[in-house]
Amino acid sequence: MARTGLYALLAANAAVVTVFFLQAGFASNALIVMGRLAGLYAALLMAFQLLLVARLPFFDRRIGMDRLTSWHRWVGFSLLWLLLAHGVFIVFGYAQASSMGPVDQLVDLAETVEGVLRALVALVLIMAVGVVSARYARRRLAYETWHFIHLYTYLAVVLAFTHQVAAGSTFTASATATTYWYTLWGVALGAVVVGRLVLPLWRNLRHRLRVTAVVPESEHVVSIYVSGRDLDRLPARAGQFFLWRFLTRDRWWQANPFSLSAAPDGTHLRLTAKTAGDGTAALRHLKVGTRVFAEGPYGAFTTMHRTRPDTLLIAGGVGITPVRALLEELHGHVVLIYRVATDQDAVLYAELTELAHAKGAELHLVTGPARPDKLAPRDIATLVPDVADRDVYVCGPPGMTTAVLRTLGDLGVPKPQIHAERFSLAG
């Protein structure tokens, strides 16, 4: 429902923008007309992009940050192409009308038309963010580096908006159009301020989180217990995750997404992390009493979206952490399939065994190399014959998750019953 609402919101605003564009009148040059229209749609997408990254609880709990992040990525690249089209069409259109060369025309526009130079700077910034957001570059950048570069997007947004105010004829064509654009951008920017700044600050001031225990689970896995004030009023659910900052001298600037590995009980929160790199390895050495700044909770990987009384949980690797929390909260008959390479890789397995026994759930540990696929349709159908009559929650490495989702489709599990989260965000 929330997803349909976002689509409808974007479509309705695209129609409104088109009407305002038609009412403002056409330029004599077709290239300028296309450039202006591309610029207007780019401005609309930019405002929509802000809404996607605002992390508003209403949308996050119903859609999920992983899906919102995917939309953000595709909207971002669409926005980049629209901005390039806007610049190219405008420059070539004015060059055609003035008989100047495109480069000379660009320089002339930057020197004589208010806001054009700011728009060029905004375009360069957005192109830079687009480059570092490409998969090849993203995989080679630390999260903090990528995030810092991404912050320049907000500067680009401000510059683009001032360009629109200064040079956009559609923006000032009527009092109604001006009110619409200011309202649109005010709502988008306000959503970012509330979701990314006001709400996290207010929650952390209210709950005052601190580390209360650090428990090594294995050589490469550690659990961290966090407590604070009034945690029973924190709207966290099993299956969700936070962006955690541990406020030590060497870690305060690092934010890592880790799922809750136990259902919130109103007194403490627990996260379990695989200490794979230098940053996460330092978690093992956190001291009790360390202050914590947590953004969240985030994610739609919760029981809120259940459609059936019985459930199948499928986890891979450290993707077991949100699944373990879900197992604690779920009612009805539950089957849990845990896919790992070796028995030693089964994180929290003793807990899972005890919890499954207490809840009357079935626990299947599936071990072995990635090939051959041990979660193929025949394997899942053998373990869970009634899989099509259950809600299915899947969390694990992207490759495994994609393969399992394909398998569930082959087994005829309806899409509304399938809930997935990639542990690149959740684990």
UniProtKB/TrEMBL annotation:
Record Gene3D superfamilies: Nucleotide-binding domain of ferredoxin-NADP reductase (FNR) module (3.40.50.80), Translation factors (2.40.30.10)
Transmembrane segments annotated in the record for this chain: 7-26, 32-53, 74-95, 115-137, 149-167, 179-199
Protein name listed in UniProt: Ferredoxin reductase family protein
Pfam families, per the entry: Ferric_reduct (PF01794), NAD_binding_1 (PF00175)
Taxonomic superkingdom: Bacteria
Membrane topology term: Multi-pass membrane protein
Cofactor: FAD
Record-annotated FAD-binding FR-type domain positions: 204-304
PROSITE patterns: FAD_FR (PS51384)
Keyword presence, Cytoplasm: no
InterPro entries linked to this entry: FAD-bd_FR_type, Fe3_Rdtase_TM_dom, FNR_nucleotide-bd, MRET, OxRdtase_FAD/NAD-bd, Riboflavin_synthase-like_b-brl
Keywords: 2Fe-2S, FAD, Flavoprotein, Iron, Iron-sulfur, Membrane, Metal-binding, Oxidoreductase, Transmembrane, Transmembrane helix
Subcellular location per the Swiss-Prot or TrEMBL entry: Membrane
